[in-house]
Every structure is written in C-alpha cells, then in structure tokens.
Amino acid sequence: MELFVVNRHGEENKTVDEETNIARILKRIEKRKRQRAKRKEKQSAIINKTREIRTEKRQSKLKEGNGIEFISPALDDTEQELTNQSHFKTEASTLKGFTILGSDKYDKKPKIKRVLPRWLSNPTIISVNLQNLEHKVSNTKCLDKDLKRKLKMNGIKYLFPVQAEIVPWLIQSHQQSDIISPRDICVSAPTGSGKTLAFVLPVVQALKNHWTKKIRALVILPTQDLAFQVFKTFEKYVQGTSLSVSVITGKCTFAAEQNELIFENKTFGYLSRTDILICTAGRLVDHLNETKGFDLTHLKYLIIDEADRVLDTVQNDWLYHLEKHIYQNDYHNQNFKVLNLFTLQRRRAPQKLLFSATLSQDPEKIQKLSLFQPKLFTSVIHSDNINVEVNVDSFIGKYTTPKELTEKYIECSVDLKPLVLYQFIKQENLRKTIIFTHSVESTHRLTIVLQSLFQGQLNIREVSSRLETKKRNKLIEDFTKGNIDMIICTDKLARGVDLIGVQCVISYSVPKFLKTYIHRAGRTARAGELGLAVTLLSKTELNNFMNLLKEVGKNHLEEIKISNEGLESLGEKYKQALENLKDTVSKEGGQTLRKIKLAKRQLKKS
C-alpha cells in the first residue's frame, strides 16, 4: 500500500510505502525526546549553578559581620551568561529575587514583626475582673469628700479597675497642669466596666471651683441615646456645685438649644450658660457654624466616648471645624507644648480623653487627633494575674469582653431559625433578654412570629428607628423594670446603652464584624454580673464566625444542642405562626398604601 505524502511546503511531490513512513515518524519522536532531555539537563545545571552563587554571596556577607542576609535583585555577570545560554528564559527570570516554582528548597522570607509606637507598646494594663473588687471609695485619697458622699448615696462602695486606674491619674495630671501640660489618654476596656464614671468624677472635681461660666468640658458621643445617658450621670455628680450640664443632640429645636447654651448681655456680650457640654458630632458642627457667641476656646477637656465610632463619623467633618474654632485666634501650633514662660502665658490645648471597648489602632485615625504624648490604658485577654509579663501583640488592638461573660452558639438551618430560637428560650426559661437582628424589617417579622409562638406567655416588644424617641425610651425603661421580658432590636441598641440586669443576648442575625459582636455581647455581663451571649449560625456561617473570634483569642465556644424531636412536635404551631405573619404583613401593607393615597389627596387639595 502506498501513501501520498505532502511536504512542508504543501507540495504533493512523492509517494512512499506505509512501513517507510512509520519508521521516519519514530525517528523524529526519538530525536525530540533526546532534545528535551538535553534542555532539561541544561536548565537544571543553570539552576544549581545559580543557587551555589547565591549561597556563596550570602555566606560572604555574613562573614563580613553585618548579620544581614541581602540578595541583590539583579543577576551578576556569571548568572547573566548562564541565563543567556538557556532557551528557558521564563524560569531563569524567576530567579531575580523570587521563589523558584516547583523547588522544595528555597529561602523563606523572614516574618515581618509589627513595630508599634512606644505609647502603644507600653500601656498600663487594667484588670477585667469585676467581681473581686479591691479599691474602696473611702480609701481613694484623691477624691474629695463631696464626691465620696455622692458615690455612697448611689450605692457605689468600690471602684471598678478602670476607675481605680483612670480617676487618680486624671486628678493628679490636673493638679500638675500649672507646671506641665497634661498628657492625652486612650482607654480600651470591656463594655460595662465603668468607663463613663472614670471620666465624670475627675472632670467634676477639676471644674467645681470655677465660678465663671465657660464651656470647659466637651463630651462627644455617636448617638442621642448615649448622649442622654452620659448627661444623666453628670447631673448626679454636679448636684450641690455651681456647675451646669447641657446636652445638644437635635432632639430639641435649634433655637431652644441656643438658648440653653448662651445668652446676650448688653455690657459683656455673649455669655455661656453651661460648664459641661454633651453632644453628638453633627449637632456640634451646626452650632459652631450658626450660633453666635458659642465659645469653646476655654476648653480644658475634650472627651470622645465610643471613640472608634465617633472617629468613623465624617458627619460635617466635625474634627476639622472643632479645631478651627478652638485655635481661631491662636497662632501657635496646638502640638507646641514645650515648657517655658512664653507658652505658659498662651492658651493650652484641651486634654483629650478617648474611651471605647473597641478602640481603633489605625494610625491614620489617631494621627487626625494630634494627641499630645498619649498614654494607653488597656485590658488583657486571658490573664488573671495583672503582674504577669504579657506579649504586647496578645492585647494591643484586640477587643476584650468581661470575664463574667459566657459565650455559646447554636447551629441550625436558616428556615428553622425562629423555631430553634423559640425552643431555646423555653428550654432555658429566659427572661430579660435582648435579641439582635440585622434590619428593621427582620426585627418586625421576628417579633410577630415569636409573639404568635408564645401566645402571650412572654411580653415581647420590638425597638427600632421607626419608634419615636419617647416611645423607645419608655420601652427601654419598662424592660429595665422587668415589665417587658424580651426586646428584639437592631444594632441601634448595641452601642453603650446601659440596660440593667440583662441575662442573655442573642444574635439572631450573625454579626458581620467583630466590633458588632463585641458591642452586642456587651449589653450583658455588665458591672460584674454574670451574662450569656448566644449566636445562631447556619453551616455556611459557622466557619467565618469562628475565624472572626479567633482574631481575639476566642478559640473554643461551647455549642448548644437543640433536640430535633422537640422541633418536630412544634410543626403545626410554627406553620400557624408563619400564616399569622403573612396576614399581618399583608394588612400592614394595605394600611400603608391607604396612608399614601390619603396623603396624595390632601396634597392635591392644598
């Protein structure tokens, strides 16, 4: 049999028999195999030679005594010559300071160790143990008799660890302020550890002897609820003194707030009505821009509570406007604090006090505050002995939770979450519980389902931004008194709101961020009381949530098992609850549409 062969030029020039054609093909295959083998040998020789050269260089550098391994990113002449001989340019180029793929032996890059500023790497460590209190109020010499008496009236006999550290330090720094400018401080401690009282007491004691009304302390908070909470604490401890406390958050009209802040005197011009001002960042900027005579140039204390959230707020660029106002007639730099007679005559920058359970360590955010010789007070994770030497990385930038807090989780499918939650509440016989969801809509729907399942056995209410402030405050007050068993809410209540006696916090919706989880869990186990935090997780959410907690050293959370047999018996009840949810949402939707139509008709008539 003959085959027609086409040459490489596409010409049909000759015929050969089948056996001859097969022999030629086999020869070509063998020839290509030999060529590949030679290329591989050459390539391996180049790689081995290059490794030897690099090793010799490294050893010679170490012999010189500098102790540093440095590999030049460029190849020397010998390496370049070897590389040019090879057709395998792609792999040779990987030798230029990069790891050679497929090689088991290569130099590992040294792990980069984080370098922190001295004030961050050398903090004062605060204990998180709130049950074995040792610092008696009566033995705190720096506090005056009036404040000790008021603490006793409010049932406070012992100072919490954060108060025992911060209060004497701030009082002493104020006493020395005529000699040297006081340092700014950052305080990172668990929620419910007494941070508010830690700045209220020293500020009241420092300002109580001033008789002329000037705003000397400014407290900035992220929300209205937190602002009023701090306002009430200040009111307790300024009673019997000449100090006045005001709060501006936008709850009242702008004119009413202006009247509370200042008044105009024919002889002396605008005068202040208050000594201590508590506000939200946005409302502060409004008054700085629009209120004539509003003066913060005599400020001694600038306190930022829930500092990480306030700093995240870019609302009206409040920090820029505040600094511009304070230093509007001051030509010297606010950071210029060298001790001499000239600077003593000038106005000093206010002492900045930052407080949070999740204090930011972002250098860009901290830089914005222009802190003066800052000092950090922080809590240690997993350390009972405060005198033990602790690795800095084990607590700097980490979030702490109270020692009295127990943390657990429940794994369940998404569609059965409401039923699992109902069974868990019944199983543990829970009262005084807060349940967190991710949205207002989810809060509303879950409230309807649980109310249907419990059928009046528990008083369950929802708290969201849809509620008016008065109604929301009334619900929180009833919950605190025990008239309401459970509150279902969004993360609006997760920050700083002091709810007394909360037994359990349940995250129905898994928190996306570690900060959110820390603040949710912080609503319980406050002021030394025991508390429980439980998170409901689906299989897909479990790994991400556990990895989130590993960042703060929480490696072992106990799982709560809910019996499937108990859930099966509740099938009909659950089905009825879902039907009730559907009907209720449908009716509410109809009512909303009617309201919209009515509003449109009224607009047309007008």
TrEMBL record:
Residues 176-377 form the Helicase ATP-binding domain. It catalyses: ATP + H2O = ADP + phosphate + H(+). Gene3D superfamilies: P-loop containing nucleotide triphosphate hydrolases. SUPFAM superfamilies: P-loop containing nucleoside triphosphate hydrolases (SSF52540). RNA helicase. The Q motif is unique to and characteristic of the DEAD box family of RNA helicases and controls ATP binding and hydrolysis. This is ATP-dependent RNA helicase. It comes from Aquatica leii.
